[in-house]
Design a protein that fits this description.
about 160 residues, mainly alpha, 5 helices, about 70% helix
Length: about 160
């Protein structure tokens, strides 16, 4: 099987892709917790924490800095906005029922599909269609919004084997 070459990201989109990397780590942690038969409430509490401290800001930044450059009828933009809406709804359901195991799995599956879509399709379209001025403006705003990596200070590392 031939491995595809990595995608060269515009500097305007690099921080968004870095955020996606950390969201993929969240997905791995959720799935690792499930494999280790961790109580769903512990996993769901981390999902809520991560969403409120990282993903919600990420979604807002995408919507305000990236998606506004797409035509309102752009199909990929519509899909991305709808995905954000669905993920927000799942988090609300998790908050309502933190002991639900299926919610964590559904969240992880939806988030992974969403990230893959944005990385493989939407971001490619954006960096190929946005003009240099818009890309530079986005890069500058992202540098201001993300001067340093936000530390994930969650203490319950349920995904680490033998840390129950």
């Amino acid at each position: 099987m031939i491995k595809p070459n990595p995608i060269k990201r515009s500097p305007a989109l690099v921080q968004f892709s870095k955020d996606h990397h950390f969201a993929l780590l969240l997905i791995w942690k959720i799935r690792q917790g499930m494999r280790l038969a961790i109580q769903p409430e512990r996993i769901n509490n981390y999902i809520i924490f991560f969403f409120e401290n990282y993903l919600e800001d990420h979604f807002r930044e995408e919507e305000e800095l990236l998606f506004v450059h797409l035509d309102k009828n752009n199909e990929q933009g519509k899909i991305a906005v709808e995905d954000h809406k669905v993920l927000r709804q799942i988090v609300e359901e998790i908050k309502s029922n933190p002991k639900s195991e299926s919610m964590a799995t559904g969240f992880a599956d939806k988030l992974e599909k969403h990230i893959r879509f944005e990385e493989r399709e939407l971001f490619n379209e954006l960096q190929n269609t946005l003009n240099e001025s818009d890309l530079n403006m986005i890069a500058e705003k992202m540098d201001t919004l993300h001067p340093a990596l936000k530390e994930d200070n969650w203490k319950d590392t349920f995904w680490v084997k033998n840390k129950n």
